[in-house]
Inverse folding.
């Protein structure tokens, strides 16, 4: 398995997500103490889809993050590079147009989508800036980007406790609920290695998006970044 401090090999990361697909949603719910539901709601509100909007949901996994867009009347395309995730999602949500795709080489034409969103997946892309440029390419001028990603807690004492949880408690808990608990060691390391709120905003800007801004969720455990094409 690829380690977070090394280059992320797409084949290794894809294999890891294939392995956790079966119980991925349940595991995330447990490890986040149910906060993932609130975070998904905040993503929908940030995108604010209108009926008829065409939305690309990257790193969509099993489609848990995609279904609310369809429920709001948007046309949503769940896209992921893990076939295991897509297979689980298609069985659970057969009405969604699941699409296999690599975020660094998206299988869509220029200016296709009104909005692009990616939740807890940007840090797993082998070249995040290239991925952000691809997202910009497929977004119509004036379209919007919403990135929901783990970040850096704003209160220093809590940040220390949180990092201890990531590296010790998270892998231990995942052994009880995940179909591939070792994968969560990688996930914990990838969160620790990820840029903070300001760092991700700078990365989004360097990829060509305009006016990047963010809002902290759960005290900065997660940050919601927005930008415009």
């Amino acid at each position: 398995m690829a380690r977070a401090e090394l280059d992320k090999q797409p084949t290794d990361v894809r294999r890891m997500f294939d392995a956790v697909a079966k119980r991925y949603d349940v595991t995330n719910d447990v490890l986040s103490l149910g906060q993932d539901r609130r975070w998904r709601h905040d993503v929908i509100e940030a995108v604010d889809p209108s009926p008829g909007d065409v939305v690309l949901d990257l790193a969509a996994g099993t489609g848990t993050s995609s279904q609310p867009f369809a429920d709001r009347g948007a046309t949503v395309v769940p896209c992921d590079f893990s076939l295991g995730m897509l297979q689980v999602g298609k069985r659970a949500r057969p009405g969604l147009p699941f699409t296999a795709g690599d975020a660094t080489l998206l299988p869509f034409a220029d200016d296709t989508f009104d909005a692009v969103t990616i939740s807890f997946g940007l840090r797993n892309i082998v070249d995040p800036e290239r991925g952000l440029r691809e997202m910009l390419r497929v977004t119509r001028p004036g379209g919007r980007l919403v990135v929901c990603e783990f970040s850096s807690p704003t209160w220093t004492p809590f940040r220390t406790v949180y990092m201890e949880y990531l590296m010790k408690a998270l892998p231990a808990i995942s052994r009880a609920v995940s179909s591939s608990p070792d994968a969560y060691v990688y996930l914990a390391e990838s969160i620790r290695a990820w840029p903070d709120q300001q760092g991700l905003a700078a990365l989004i800007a360097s990829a060509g998006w305009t006016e990047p801004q963010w809002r902290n969720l759960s005290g900065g455990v997660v940050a919601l970044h927005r930008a415009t094409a």
Remarks:
- Confidence is low (pLDDT under 50) at residues 1-7.
